[in-house]
């Protein structure tokens, strides 16, 4: 669990080779923003949405993060290098910044609760 930290920002997304598409989800203590684009089709995102985050949602996200576990993960795949897809998660605040990149759809046991929340948010914004 992360202690309530208003400077914390969680970013996640996916990117696929051959201009197939990419998205990003940016979560802070006040806002959730989602952008999805298919670079091969247009420079204009197909989806660009944002909404305020509730205190309950923010607390659920904070409770889903074991920061020590996340900081110890060392995933750095490059499926996009061979026209595949990679998923990424970055966590940053005033004191730390760490990012991992892994094969799209892979569940990592130590961060599965966070991955589940990010997946739910992504589904919400894509519909």
Write the layout of secondary structure elements.
Elements lengths: L8 E8 L4 E7 L3 E7 L9 E6 L2 H10 L2 H6 L12 E8 L4 E7 L8 H15 L1
Antiparallel strand pairs: 1-2, 1-5, 2-3, 3-4, 5-6
Please explain how this structure is put together.
Strand 2 (21-27) and strand 3 form a beta hairpin. This protein has a 6-stranded antiparallel β-sheet with strand order 4-3-2-1-5-6, covered by helices on one side. The N and C termini lie far apart (30 Å). The chain contains 3 helices and 6 strands, in the order ββββααββα. The longest helix is centred in the last third of the chain and has 15 residues, at 112-126. It has one domain (9-126): 2-Layer Sandwich (Mago nashi protein), CATH 3.30.1560. It is globular, with a radius of gyration of 14 Å. 24% of the residues lie in helices and 34% in strands. The protein is an alpha+beta fold.
């Amino acid at each position: 669990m992360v202690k309530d930290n208003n400077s914390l920002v969680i970013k996640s997304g996916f990117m696929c080779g051959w201009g197939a598409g990419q998205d990003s989800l940016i979560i802070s203590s006040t806002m959730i923003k989602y952008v999805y684009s298919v670079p091969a089709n247009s420079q204009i995102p197909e989806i660009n949405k944002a909404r305020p985050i509730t205190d309950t949602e923010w607390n659920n996200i904070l409770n889903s993060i074991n920061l020590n576990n996340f900081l110890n993960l060392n995933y750095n795949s490059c499926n996009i290098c061979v026209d595949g897809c990679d998923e990424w998660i970055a966590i940053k605040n005033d004191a730390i910044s760490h990012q991992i990149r892994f094969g799209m759809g892979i569940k990592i046991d130590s961060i599965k609760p966070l991955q589940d929340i990010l997946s739910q948010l992504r589904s919400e914004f894509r519909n």
